Amino acid sequence: MRTIWNFLVPSLLLALSFTPRADAQGSKLVQSTRAPTGGVPAEVLVVLAQEESGKIDPELKKLTALRRPPFNSFRSMKVLSKPKVKLVPGRDAVVSLPNGRRLKLALLQIMPDGRFKMKVSINRPEKADYLPLLQVVASAGDPFFVAGQTYEGGTLVVGVTVDPKKTLQLP
Amino acid sequence: MESSKTEQERLQMFFDGELSSEEAEAVRRQLEDSPEGAAELAAWQAIRDGIREVSDPWPDAVDSDELFARIEADIRAPAVERNSRESMPALRVVPGGRERRVWGGVAAGLAAAAAILLAVLTLPEEGTTPGMVRGSKVVAVDFGEYAGTVFEVEGGAGQPLSVVWISDEEVAIP
Questions:
Q1: How many CB atoms lie within 10 A of CB A104?
Q2: Would the pTM count as exceeding 0.80?
Q3: Which of B136, B138, B142, B169 is best to mutate for the A interface (most A CBs within 10 A)?
Protein backbone atom coordinates (compact mmCIF):
# COMPACT_ATOMS: atom_id res chain seq x y z
CA MET A 1 0.00 0.00 0.00
CA ARG A 2 2.87 2.28 0.80
CA THR A 3 4.15 1.61 -2.68
CA ILE A 4 0.94 3.00 -4.15
CA TRP A 5 1.23 6.21 -2.18
CA ASN A 6 4.90 6.52 -3.06
CA PHE A 7 3.84 6.79 -6.70
CA LEU A 8 0.40 8.29 -6.41
CA VAL A 9 1.20 11.37 -4.35
CA PRO A 10 4.15 12.60 -6.45
CA SER A 11 2.25 11.78 -9.62
CA LEU A 12 -0.73 13.80 -8.50
CA LEU A 13 1.47 16.72 -7.49
CA LEU A 14 3.18 16.57 -10.86
CA ALA A 15 -0.14 16.39 -12.64
CA LEU A 16 -1.47 19.34 -10.67
CA SER A 17 1.54 21.38 -11.65
CA PHE A 18 0.56 20.89 -15.30
CA THR A 19 -3.12 21.60 -14.78
CA PRO A 20 -4.18 24.87 -16.46
CA ARG A 21 -4.51 27.60 -13.93
CA ALA A 22 -7.91 28.98 -14.82
CA ASP A 23 -7.53 32.14 -12.80
CA ALA A 24 -3.98 32.87 -13.79
CA GLN A 25 -4.64 35.47 -16.45
CA GLY A 26 -7.68 36.87 -14.75
CA SER A 27 -5.91 37.40 -11.46
CA LYS A 28 -2.98 38.99 -13.24
CA LEU A 29 -5.30 41.45 -14.92
CA VAL A 30 -7.18 42.05 -11.74
CA GLN A 31 -4.06 42.86 -9.80
CA SER A 32 -2.46 45.02 -12.44
CA THR A 33 -3.94 48.17 -13.89
CA ARG A 34 -0.99 48.73 -16.13
CA ALA A 35 -0.98 47.85 -19.78
CA PRO A 36 1.24 44.94 -20.81
CA THR A 37 4.64 45.85 -22.13
CA GLY A 38 4.38 46.86 -25.77
CA GLY A 39 0.78 48.00 -25.49
CA VAL A 40 -2.56 46.38 -25.96
CA PRO A 41 -3.49 45.37 -29.49
CA ALA A 42 -6.73 46.67 -30.90
CA GLU A 43 -8.48 46.38 -34.21
CA VAL A 44 -10.56 49.06 -35.90
CA LEU A 45 -13.12 47.72 -38.32
CA VAL A 46 -14.35 50.27 -40.84
CA VAL A 47 -17.49 49.17 -42.64
CA LEU A 48 -19.52 50.92 -45.31
CA ALA A 49 -23.15 50.00 -44.76
CA GLN A 50 -25.81 50.79 -47.33
CA GLU A 51 -29.54 50.33 -47.48
CA GLU A 52 -29.43 49.24 -51.10
CA SER A 53 -29.45 45.53 -51.70
CA GLY A 54 -26.05 44.03 -52.04
CA LYS A 55 -23.62 41.68 -50.41
CA ILE A 56 -22.72 41.35 -46.79
CA ASP A 57 -18.96 41.04 -46.55
CA PRO A 58 -18.10 37.45 -45.55
CA GLU A 59 -15.74 38.85 -42.93
CA LEU A 60 -18.76 40.19 -41.09
CA LYS A 61 -20.71 36.97 -40.92
CA LYS A 62 -19.39 36.18 -37.48
CA LEU A 63 -20.17 39.67 -36.25
CA THR A 64 -23.76 38.89 -35.36
CA ALA A 65 -24.28 42.27 -33.71
CA LEU A 66 -24.34 43.86 -37.16
CA ARG A 67 -27.33 41.74 -38.09
CA ARG A 68 -29.42 43.14 -35.27
CA PRO A 69 -31.40 46.41 -35.18
CA PRO A 70 -30.64 49.06 -36.21
CA PHE A 71 -27.88 47.57 -38.33
CA ASN A 72 -30.25 45.10 -39.96
CA SER A 73 -31.76 47.95 -41.95
CA PHE A 74 -28.61 47.92 -44.04
CA ARG A 75 -28.84 45.48 -46.93
CA SER A 76 -25.18 45.57 -47.88
CA MET A 77 -22.00 45.87 -45.86
CA LYS A 78 -18.45 46.10 -47.06
CA VAL A 79 -15.30 46.09 -45.00
CA LEU A 80 -13.29 49.11 -46.13
CA SER A 81 -10.35 48.64 -43.82
CA LYS A 82 -9.29 46.77 -40.74
CA PRO A 83 -6.27 48.52 -39.30
CA LYS A 84 -4.59 47.18 -36.20
CA VAL A 85 -3.14 49.47 -33.59
CA LYS A 86 -1.36 49.19 -30.29
CA LEU A 87 -2.89 51.03 -27.38
CA VAL A 88 -0.31 52.46 -25.04
CA PRO A 89 -1.41 54.51 -22.05
CA GLY A 90 -0.68 58.20 -22.51
CA ARG A 91 -0.29 57.88 -26.24
CA ASP A 92 -3.02 58.28 -28.85
CA ALA A 93 -3.38 55.73 -31.60
CA VAL A 94 -4.70 57.38 -34.74
CA VAL A 95 -6.62 55.70 -37.54
CA SER A 96 -7.53 57.55 -40.70
CA LEU A 97 -11.10 57.07 -41.79
CA PRO A 98 -12.10 56.98 -45.47
CA ASN A 99 -13.96 60.29 -45.13
CA GLY A 100 -10.77 62.10 -44.17
CA ARG A 101 -11.51 62.22 -40.49
CA ARG A 102 -9.25 60.70 -37.89
CA LEU A 103 -10.23 58.32 -35.16
CA LYS A 104 -8.13 58.72 -32.04
CA LEU A 105 -7.94 55.96 -29.48
CA ALA A 106 -6.29 56.07 -26.09
CA LEU A 107 -6.09 53.45 -23.40
CA LEU A 108 -6.93 55.06 -20.09
CA GLN A 109 -6.92 52.13 -17.73
CA ILE A 110 -7.20 48.40 -17.35
CA MET A 111 -10.06 48.01 -14.91
CA PRO A 112 -9.80 45.76 -11.85
CA ASP A 113 -12.16 43.32 -13.58
CA GLY A 114 -9.87 43.13 -16.62
CA ARG A 115 -11.85 45.40 -18.92
CA PHE A 116 -10.24 48.23 -20.82
CA LYS A 117 -11.24 51.83 -20.37
CA MET A 118 -10.64 53.85 -23.50
CA LYS A 119 -11.03 57.39 -24.74
CA VAL A 120 -12.19 57.84 -28.30
CA SER A 121 -12.60 60.90 -30.45
CA ILE A 122 -13.18 61.60 -34.12
CA ASN A 123 -11.59 64.72 -35.45
CA ARG A 124 -12.19 66.70 -38.60
CA PRO A 125 -9.27 68.48 -40.22
CA GLU A 126 -9.37 72.21 -39.63
CA LYS A 127 -12.75 71.94 -37.94
CA ALA A 128 -14.30 71.21 -34.62
CA ASP A 129 -14.23 67.59 -33.58
CA TYR A 130 -16.98 65.45 -34.97
CA LEU A 131 -17.06 63.36 -31.83
CA PRO A 132 -15.16 65.26 -29.18
CA LEU A 133 -15.23 62.67 -26.46
CA LEU A 134 -16.29 59.13 -25.91
CA GLN A 135 -15.24 56.97 -23.03
CA VAL A 136 -15.91 53.28 -23.26
CA VAL A 137 -15.23 50.31 -21.07
CA ALA A 138 -14.90 47.08 -23.05
CA SER A 139 -13.80 43.57 -22.32
CA ALA A 140 -11.27 41.78 -24.44
CA GLY A 141 -12.69 40.73 -27.77
CA ASP A 142 -15.95 42.63 -27.36
CA PRO A 143 -16.29 45.59 -29.73
CA PHE A 144 -18.06 48.87 -29.47
CA PHE A 145 -19.36 50.74 -32.48
CA VAL A 146 -19.47 54.33 -33.66
CA ALA A 147 -21.86 54.73 -36.55
CA GLY A 148 -23.66 57.49 -38.41
CA GLN A 149 -21.10 59.22 -40.60
CA THR A 150 -22.25 59.45 -44.17
CA TYR A 151 -19.89 58.25 -46.85
CA GLU A 152 -20.40 57.41 -50.51
CA GLY A 153 -24.14 57.09 -50.23
CA GLY A 154 -23.91 54.91 -47.19
CA THR A 155 -23.09 55.02 -43.52
CA LEU A 156 -19.79 54.31 -41.89
CA VAL A 157 -19.88 51.81 -39.06
CA VAL A 158 -16.68 51.79 -37.08
CA GLY A 159 -16.09 48.93 -34.68
CA VAL A 160 -13.27 48.92 -32.19
CA THR A 161 -12.16 45.71 -30.53
CA VAL A 162 -9.53 45.53 -27.88
CA ASP A 163 -8.03 42.16 -27.26
CA PRO A 164 -4.85 41.55 -25.34
CA LYS A 165 -4.72 38.04 -26.74
CA LYS A 166 -2.91 37.34 -29.93
CA THR A 167 -5.96 36.40 -31.95
CA LEU A 168 -8.77 38.85 -32.16
CA GLN A 169 -12.18 37.24 -31.93
CA LEU A 170 -15.26 38.70 -33.42
CA PRO A 171 -18.31 38.13 -31.23
CA MET B 1 -54.42 -25.24 11.80
CA GLU B 2 -52.63 -28.48 12.42
CA SER B 3 -54.85 -30.26 9.98
CA SER B 4 -54.24 -27.54 7.41
CA LYS B 5 -50.52 -27.88 7.83
CA THR B 6 -50.76 -31.59 7.48
CA GLU B 7 -52.83 -31.14 4.39
CA GLN B 8 -50.24 -28.80 2.97
CA GLU B 9 -47.48 -31.28 3.71
CA ARG B 10 -49.51 -34.01 2.10
CA LEU B 11 -50.03 -31.91 -0.98
CA GLN B 12 -46.34 -31.12 -1.09
CA MET B 13 -45.50 -34.81 -0.84
CA PHE B 14 -48.01 -35.49 -3.59
CA PHE B 15 -46.45 -32.96 -5.89
CA ASP B 16 -43.00 -34.25 -5.02
CA GLY B 17 -44.10 -37.77 -5.87
CA GLU B 18 -43.39 -39.02 -2.39
CA LEU B 19 -46.82 -40.54 -1.68
CA SER B 20 -47.77 -44.10 -2.29
CA SER B 21 -49.82 -44.71 -5.39
CA GLU B 22 -53.02 -45.13 -3.34
CA GLU B 23 -52.43 -41.96 -1.36
CA ALA B 24 -51.47 -40.08 -4.49
CA GLU B 25 -54.63 -41.19 -6.26
CA ALA B 26 -56.74 -40.10 -3.27
CA VAL B 27 -55.11 -36.66 -3.24
CA ARG B 28 -55.57 -36.32 -6.99
CA ARG B 29 -59.28 -37.13 -6.75
CA GLN B 30 -59.61 -34.68 -3.88
CA LEU B 31 -57.99 -31.93 -5.91
CA GLU B 32 -60.08 -32.66 -8.96
CA ASP B 33 -63.26 -32.36 -6.95
CA SER B 34 -62.95 -28.58 -6.59
CA PRO B 35 -62.17 -25.97 -9.26
CA GLU B 36 -59.45 -24.43 -7.09
CA GLY B 37 -57.88 -27.81 -6.49
CA ALA B 38 -58.08 -28.69 -10.16
CA ALA B 39 -56.44 -25.39 -11.06
CA GLU B 40 -53.69 -25.97 -8.51
CA LEU B 41 -53.16 -29.46 -9.82
CA ALA B 42 -52.99 -28.18 -13.38
CA ALA B 43 -50.49 -25.51 -12.38
CA TRP B 44 -48.22 -27.98 -10.63
CA GLN B 45 -48.42 -30.34 -13.56
CA ALA B 46 -47.43 -27.54 -15.87
CA ILE B 47 -44.45 -26.73 -13.68
CA ARG B 48 -43.45 -30.38 -13.54
CA ASP B 49 -43.75 -30.72 -17.29
CA GLY B 50 -41.66 -27.61 -17.75
CA ILE B 51 -38.94 -28.90 -15.47
CA ARG B 52 -38.97 -32.21 -17.24
CA GLU B 53 -38.74 -30.49 -20.58
CA VAL B 54 -35.78 -28.44 -19.49
CA SER B 55 -33.97 -31.36 -17.94
CA ASP B 56 -34.59 -33.67 -20.88
CA PRO B 57 -31.60 -32.45 -22.90
CA TRP B 58 -29.37 -33.57 -20.07
CA PRO B 59 -28.46 -37.06 -21.13
CA ASP B 60 -28.79 -40.01 -18.89
CA ALA B 61 -25.13 -40.54 -19.56
CA VAL B 62 -24.42 -38.12 -16.75
CA ASP B 63 -24.18 -40.36 -13.80
CA SER B 64 -24.70 -38.10 -10.86
CA ASP B 65 -23.52 -40.70 -8.37
CA GLU B 66 -20.29 -41.13 -10.23
CA LEU B 67 -19.88 -37.38 -10.58
CA PHE B 68 -20.28 -36.77 -6.85
CA ALA B 69 -17.97 -39.67 -6.10
CA ARG B 70 -15.26 -38.08 -8.24
CA ILE B 71 -15.74 -34.70 -6.61
CA GLU B 72 -15.53 -36.27 -3.19
CA ALA B 73 -12.41 -38.17 -4.16
CA ASP B 74 -10.76 -35.01 -5.42
CA ILE B 75 -11.59 -33.18 -2.23
CA ARG B 76 -10.10 -35.93 -0.11
CA ALA B 77 -7.03 -36.34 -2.24
CA PRO B 78 -3.80 -34.76 -0.90
CA ALA B 79 -3.00 -31.32 -2.23
CA VAL B 80 -0.86 -31.39 -5.33
CA GLU B 81 2.20 -29.27 -5.22
CA ARG B 82 1.83 -26.72 -8.01
CA ASN B 83 5.14 -25.02 -8.20
CA SER B 84 5.78 -25.91 -11.77
CA ARG B 85 6.00 -22.89 -14.03
CA GLU B 86 4.29 -24.75 -16.84
CA SER B 87 1.33 -25.76 -14.72
CA MET B 88 0.07 -22.30 -13.71
CA PRO B 89 2.03 -19.56 -15.44
CA ALA B 90 -0.83 -17.09 -15.14
CA LEU B 91 -0.90 -17.32 -11.37
CA ARG B 92 2.81 -17.07 -10.85
CA VAL B 93 3.69 -14.52 -8.20
CA VAL B 94 6.05 -11.89 -9.50
CA PRO B 95 8.02 -10.55 -6.61
CA GLY B 96 9.79 -7.24 -6.19
CA GLY B 97 10.29 -4.75 -8.97
CA ARG B 98 7.64 -5.85 -11.40
CA GLU B 99 4.96 -5.69 -8.75
CA ARG B 100 6.09 -2.20 -7.90
CA ARG B 101 6.05 -1.24 -11.55
CA VAL B 102 2.51 -2.54 -11.89
CA TRP B 103 1.32 -0.47 -8.95
CA GLY B 104 3.29 2.49 -10.21
CA GLY B 105 1.51 2.20 -13.54
CA VAL B 106 -1.82 2.09 -11.79
CA ALA B 107 -0.90 5.12 -9.72
CA ALA B 108 0.32 7.01 -12.77
CA GLY B 109 -2.90 6.15 -14.56
CA LEU B 110 -4.95 7.41 -11.65
CA ALA B 111 -2.89 10.58 -11.52
CA ALA B 112 -3.33 11.16 -15.23
CA ALA B 113 -7.08 10.64 -14.91
CA ALA B 114 -7.18 13.07 -11.99
CA ALA B 115 -5.22 15.64 -13.98
CA ILE B 116 -7.54 15.32 -16.95
CA LEU B 117 -10.55 15.69 -14.68
CA LEU B 118 -9.07 18.75 -13.03
CA ALA B 119 -8.17 20.23 -16.38
CA VAL B 120 -11.70 19.75 -17.66
CA LEU B 121 -13.22 21.19 -14.51
CA THR B 122 -10.97 24.22 -14.45
CA LEU B 123 -10.71 24.89 -18.17
CA PRO B 124 -11.95 28.40 -18.91
CA GLU B 125 -14.77 28.76 -21.39
CA GLU B 126 -13.52 29.41 -24.89
CA GLY B 127 -13.16 33.09 -25.67
CA THR B 128 -13.62 34.19 -22.10
CA THR B 129 -11.29 35.01 -19.31
CA PRO B 130 -12.44 34.12 -15.82
CA GLY B 131 -13.33 37.07 -13.66
CA MET B 132 -14.01 39.33 -16.63
CA VAL B 133 -17.26 41.05 -17.46
CA ARG B 134 -18.19 40.63 -21.10
CA GLY B 135 -19.34 43.37 -23.41
CA SER B 136 -18.74 47.06 -23.90
CA LYS B 137 -20.30 50.07 -22.25
CA VAL B 138 -20.20 53.80 -22.83
CA VAL B 139 -19.35 55.64 -19.63
CA ALA B 140 -19.12 59.17 -21.03
CA VAL B 141 -19.91 60.85 -24.31
CA ASP B 142 -19.85 64.36 -25.73
CA PHE B 143 -21.53 64.71 -29.11
CA GLY B 144 -20.29 68.26 -29.56
CA GLU B 145 -22.17 70.03 -32.32
CA TYR B 146 -23.94 66.91 -33.49
CA ALA B 147 -26.90 64.95 -32.29
CA GLY B 148 -26.36 61.43 -31.20
CA THR B 149 -27.56 58.57 -29.10
CA VAL B 150 -26.14 55.56 -27.35
CA PHE B 151 -27.72 52.14 -27.32
CA GLU B 152 -26.77 48.52 -27.05
CA VAL B 153 -26.90 45.56 -29.35
CA GLU B 154 -26.45 41.98 -28.33
CA GLY B 155 -23.22 40.26 -29.20
CA GLY B 156 -22.82 36.68 -30.30
CA ALA B 157 -22.39 35.52 -26.73
CA GLY B 158 -25.34 37.57 -25.52
CA GLN B 159 -23.07 40.26 -24.16
CA PRO B 160 -24.14 43.91 -24.51
CA LEU B 161 -22.19 45.87 -27.09
CA SER B 162 -22.41 49.64 -27.08
CA VAL B 163 -23.28 51.55 -30.21
CA VAL B 164 -22.77 55.30 -30.47
CA TRP B 165 -24.87 56.68 -33.30
CA ILE B 166 -24.01 60.22 -34.16
CA SER B 167 -25.62 62.29 -36.85
CA ASP B 168 -23.46 63.74 -39.55
CA GLU B 169 -25.44 66.97 -39.66
CA GLU B 170 -24.64 69.74 -37.29
CA VAL B 171 -27.40 70.71 -34.94
CA ALA B 172 -28.62 74.21 -35.69
CA ILE B 173 -28.35 76.32 -32.59
CA PRO B 174 -31.31 78.80 -32.44
A1: 16
A2: no
A3: B136
